[in-house]
Amino acid sequence: MKVHNLKIKPQYFKDVVSGIKTFEVRKNDRNFKVGDLMVLETYDNEKFTGGFVNTEITYILDDPKYCKKGYVILGFKLHLEMGGILQ
User: Fewest CB within 10 angstroms: 22, 31, 41, 54, which?
Assistant: First the structure.
């Protein structure tokens, strides 16, 4: 199991925290695996803004019919019990 620290825009972070966004589209340059943890950290294109949340990858869609070459769609679940700052 790996831990991936990833930037996320504040507007998408709010949707993750509220539970309506349960996926990420990412370049597959980190060898993501089901069971890996992702720490999503808010970033406003200039700096980190302090918010973060812990998630666990539960599904990976890596089908060229649906994903751009080199990209994956990562399904995840929140792990608020592992801490976070929900700004």
Answer: 31
